[in-house]
Design goal:
Layout: H1 8-23, H2 36-61, H3 66-77, E1 86-91, H4 98-109, E2 115-120, H5 121-127, H6 130-142, H7 152-163, E3 168-173, H8 178-184, E4 196-201, H9 204-209, E5 214-217, H10 223-235, H11 245-252, H12 259-272, H13 279-291, H14 295-306, H15 310-323, H16 328-334, H17 338-347, E6 352-353, E7 359-360, H18 363-376, E8 386-387, H19 390-399, E9 408-412, E10 420-422, E11 435-439, E12 449-451, E13 464-467, E14 486-488, E15 511-513, E16 534-536, E17 545-546, E18 555-557, E19 566-567, E20 577-579, H20 589-598, E21 610-615, E22 625-628, E23 633-634, E24 640-650, E25 653-656, E26 662-666, E27 672-676, E28 679-682, E29 691-702, E30 711-714, E31 724-735
Helix pairs in contact: 6-7, 6-8, 10-11, 10-12, 14-18, 15-17, 15-18, 16-17
């Protein structure tokens, strides 16, 4: 049929299309297109895409924090790469927003693919088998119904065969088992060039085991974004009433940055009619919600716990009730199979490990763990696995109602306003307690907890005994510490750990902290404590000797031991950090420095230089290259060296050094920079004006830069207080020449 070229209506259409084509960069007369039908198709597609992209931008703007997630993941997807198949993992704790992020990516990119699919894996697997899921996956991708699959292996083969030449965009949402990935997207070779596969899961370990190398971790919202999200859901962009800002902030913080929890709270307050309530009514509602967690939130979080092994569940509960915020190495030694269990919890997104190595469990996850402990005992206090509430622990101790079900007991003594007198027999009914924590906050040495010395005893299975302001002069005579891994008794009234005629079995002890025990006169022979790695005696002002220390010791903090005269380091020691600052009575400084520098085991410490601070006003001749001030030139062929600083501190200021008090690195300009950051504090006692000298030593420094550069050793800009100054420095070059030939 011949087109009616002269038809007025067709002419108007052609003119309109020409104008539209010009607007979007098309010109029908240019000759780029074979015919006008192709022009129309391309113009419509581009206009449609621009309209869609505009809608998509509006869509993600409505979701707080979504833009940064989409941008971050878009760069990982590398959509411009047409030949590569990329598989990306999105991990994070339950309710953090992984699915919504994946949905946004699917909305943005799936239109660019002829075949695409968004599959809720976990929910489908609850209802049907993996074999069914494979068939459903093929149906959603290809549109072919009733594909017969004999078994999962056949399903995997069918997916690979049918899709290995197709460019697909696939989201596999909420994957929680390895076999699900093996059955649906086992390898990049299953999909055609340019394909993109996104996998969301709470289990980062699952992604690692399945070879997914690129993983994007989703974090909780910060406080400001949480408040913004709450306002957006509840008030729909309308400014909230005046005077409610602080209350709204409290409401938004009920979710502790967890988006799903925040959404639930927002909807609850919206249904309650928050827009029409008075400030007083809102205050009362917030108080009630703060006391009772929402069931839907608990359900989301609890599903991650359900499938853990028994041992990992126990570790999870102990961390939730006792060890949230503690260092991973410390907790790993206290719990049975601790390091492996913590790793599983990290993989399942139930805990995170901070840059400092501390375990961080989200507050809502912690609360869920505590609720599980209560449920286990059917809210019977005496049978509860762990007691952490102040009143609960107090009542069980006071009334002697403990049972063999109790494994851990914690008491914040800052909350104890009345004196609590307990007998050793209070622990007799709790033989299985492994973790005992009676703690105060740093700097608070007071305690209203009293222990009667007569026939006093402690649980025989203790692995952790943390008792700040311990009231007796020795450990109970009937207590056998053979299982102790950590003994912490800060601000105690100890004079000796035990009677002199008694030997302590400390075979398992790894950490001993008796800091600020001002009456402590002597420690027992610790040479038999063959696992001891950390010893803290800071502020033990009457302690005179540290003798017979074990070879395994890595960390020794004796800052402020004003009476300390002698420290006996083992002959082949492994000391990595030694702080003897403000030990003014030390009479063997030169000998101690020599021992530290020349009698240590070096092989295992190459990756971690040794640090020491010792009272001294002269740089030893061991450091054969010395300079005044804080800068020194190094040989351009330097490979291995030891360094030192002479640092002064004017009273009434004092300085001490923790593991985080220094950092070091080689910089691009050939400067080795050692940043010294002592903990500086002001003495509360009246002291004469004087300047104290300390020698800071860093042993075992390596130069990874092979080139003829001049290096300068320098400290960072002056400390805030002018009372601290580096006045001299020195270097010993252990390997100065690099041989030209081997």
């Amino acid at each position: 049929m011949k087109r009616p070229e002269g038809d007025e209506k067709v002419s108007k259409w052609r003119e309109a299309l020409t104008q539209v084509g010009g607007l979007v960069g098309y010109e029908s007369r240019v000759g780029k297109w074979e015919d006008e039908a192709t022009l129309v198709k391309d113009a419509v597609r581009e206009i449609s895409d621009k309209l869609y992209n505009g809608c998509f931008r509006d869509y993600i703007e409505d979701k707080v924090g979504m833009r940064s997630h989409v941008e971050g993941l878009s760069s990982l997807l590398e959509m411009e790469s047409e030949e590569e198949v990329r598989i990306i993992g999105i991990s994070g704790m339950g309710g953090v927003g992984k699915t919504i992020i994946a949905e946004c990516l699917y909305r943005q990119f799936s239109r660019q693919f002829t075949s695409h699919c968004f599959l809720d894996v976990k929910e489908n697997c609850k209802q049907e088998s993996l074999l069914y899921l494979q068939g459903h996956f093929l149906f959603k991708i290809l549109g072919i119904e009733h594909i017969k699959l004999a078994n999962v292996g056949a399903g995997s083969h069918e997916i690979k065969t049918r899709l290995q030449h197709q460019k697909v965009f696939v989201v596999l949402d909420d994957v929680d088992q390895e076999e699900q990935l093996h059955g649906l997207a086992n390898d990049t070779s299953w999909f055609g060039p340019g394909s993109r596969i996104i996998i969301t899961t709470r289990d980062k370990g699952l992604l690692q085991k399945c070879g997914v190398e690129t993983v994007y971790t989703v974090k909780c919202l910060d406080k400001e974004h949480a408040l913004q999200m709450f306002k957006q859901i509840v008030f729909k962009g309308i400014p909230p009433p005046d005077g409610l800002e602080q209350l709204l902030r409290r409401v938004s913080q009920l979710a502790y940055g967890l988006p799903s929890a925040l959404t639930d709270y927002s909807r609850l307050f919206l249904a309650w009619g928050i827009r029409t309530k008075t400030k007083e009514e809102l205050e009362e509602a917030v108080r009630k919600f703060e006391e009772v967690p929402q069931e839907t939130i608990v359900k989301i979080l609890r599903s991650s716990y359900t499938y853990l092994s028994r041992m990992v569940k126990i570790a999870f509960l102990h961390i939730a009730c006792l060890f949230n915020g503690d260092h991973i190495l410390r907790v790993g030694t206290l719990l049975d199979n601790g390091e492996a269990s913590i790793q599983v919890l990290v993989e399942k997104s139930l805990v995170e490990i901070s840059a400092q190595g501390c375990i961080n469990m989200h507050v809502l996850v912690e609360n869920m763990g505590k609720e599980i402990v209560r449920e286990e005992s059917k809210s019977t206090l005496q049978k509860q696995r762990i007691l952490w509430e102040h009143l609960d622990a107090r009542n069980v101790l006071r009334d002697k109602t403990g049972t063999n079900k109790i494994e851990g007991l914690a008491q914040d003594m800052c909350q104890m306003h009345d004196v609590l007198l307990i007998k050793g027999s209070s622990f007799n009914r709790m033989p299985n307690v492994k973790f005992l924590k009676f703690y105060t906050h740093l700097g608070d040495s007071g305690s209203n907890l009293r222990l009667l010395p007569d026939a006093a005893s402690l649980p025989p299975m203790l692995k952790l005994l943390h008792w700040d302001a311990y009231p007796l002069r020795t450990l109970p005579s009937l207590f056998s510490p053979q299982h102790l891994v950590e003994l912490t008794m800060r601000y105690s009234k100890l004079r000796f750990l035990c009677n002199k005629n008694r030997d302590l079995n400390l075979d398992e002890l790894k950490r001993l902290d008796v800091s600020r025990s001002k009456g402590l006169r002597e420690l027992p022979d610790l040479s038999s404590a063959v696992k001891l790695e950390e010893l803290v005696v800071e502020g033990c002002e009457k302690l005179k000797f540290l003798k017979e220390l074990p070879q395994t010791l890595k960390y020794l903090n004796a800052h402020g031991c004003k009476s300390l005269k002698n420290v006996s380091l083992p002959y082949n020691h492994y000391i990595e950090h030694l702080d003897l600052s403000d030990c003014s009575q030390l009479n063997q400084n030169e000998e101690l420095i020599t021992h530290f520098l020349t009698r240590g085991q070096n092989e295992e410490l190459q990756a971690s230089p040794r640090f020491a601070c010792i009272p001294q006003n002269v740089i030893p001749t061991y450091f054969n290259n010395q300079s005044r001030g804080s800068t020194i030139q190094l040989s351009p062929n330097l490979v291995d060296f030891d360094a030192c600083f002479m640092i002064t501190c004017a009273r009434p200021f004092h300085l001490k050094f923790s593991k985080s008090s220094y950092s070091l690195k080689w910089e691009a300009d050939g400067v080795f920079r050692f940043n010294l950051k002592p903990d500086l504090y002001l003495s509360l006692e009246t002291e004469e004006e004087e300047t104290i000298h300390h020698l800071v030593i860093i042993q075992g420094l390596n130069n990874d830069h092979a080139g003829n550069f001049l290096y300068s050793l320098q400290h960072p800009p002056r400390f805030d207080s002018p009372t601290v100054e580096i006045i001299a420095c020195g270097v010993r070059m252990n390997l100065q020449e690099i041989p030209n030939q081997i």
